[in-house]
Amino acid sequence: MKPAINPNKIVVFTGAGISVSSGLEAFRNSGLRTVGLHEQLASPHAWNRRRKEVIEYYNWRRECAGKAQPTLAHLAIARLEQKYEVVVITQNVDDLHERAGSRDVIHLHGELRKVRCCGQHALVSDIGISPQHLGDTCPDGHELRPHVVWFGEQVMQYSEAGRHFKTAAKVLVIGTSLQVDPAAKLPKKGRYRAEKLIVNPHFDVADRPYSYRIIHKEADCIVPDIVAAWLDGQRW
Ligand SMILES: [Zn+2]
Hints:
Organism: Halomonas campaniensis
Keywords: NAD, Transferase
CATH superfamily of the largest domain: TPP-binding domain
CATH class of the largest domain: Alpha Beta
Distance between the termini: 29 Å
Helix content: 25-40%
Pfam families: SIR2 (PF02146)
Strand order of the largest sheet: 3-2-1-7-8-9
Number of strands: 9
Order of helices and strands: EHHHHHEHEEEEHEEEH
Bound molecules: zinc ion
Domain Deacetylase sirtuin-type: 1-236
Oligomer: single chain
Low-confidence stretches: none
Strand content: 15-25%
CATH architecture of the largest domain: 3-Layer(aba) Sandwich
EC number: 2.3.1.286
CATH topology of the largest domain: Rossmann fold
Shape: globular
Structural class: alpha/beta
């Protein structure tokens, strides 16, 4: 049997497109970094062979994310909590949702501001915007690694994210192409009766999950309007 829909629950699912106006890309592009660096360094293989470079790469990305600012769309999403139970599920590793005020955020691909120990207890700790140093350890002496998902690794909290989709009365998907699994499968778990929107100026309608409406606009232009309508008790 399917779980009951919670009429007061909203799931917001976000990807890189929500951060266009945050400055994140501008900071990243100003660094004269090698094209393809992410593909070279975001893997367990690189961690074993080029550990110092991997740590420096994530230190740099953490620094860029720290300089970026939440967008109008991030801020609008946080306002939904005035009236609704909101779960934000994001593919982004920055903390812009948290800094905008969202309190319940699932990071499918991990978080730049956290590291975890490579020991069995996989203790996660928040280092804020500080750099990680080669050889840093947890209190038990296990080496620390960035708390992010690398190529070939499982996304985090996928089942939990799926359960939230199944019980939401409204689903708002922002700034993701839905072309990469397993994240692309999540919106399909949204219920037929739920109000479901996708905001993405470049979204290919061929990839549209069943019964979603597509809005081909930038997040900052339209998400505040959608949020205002929902806070007013209207469908958008
Ligand atoms: Zn440990």
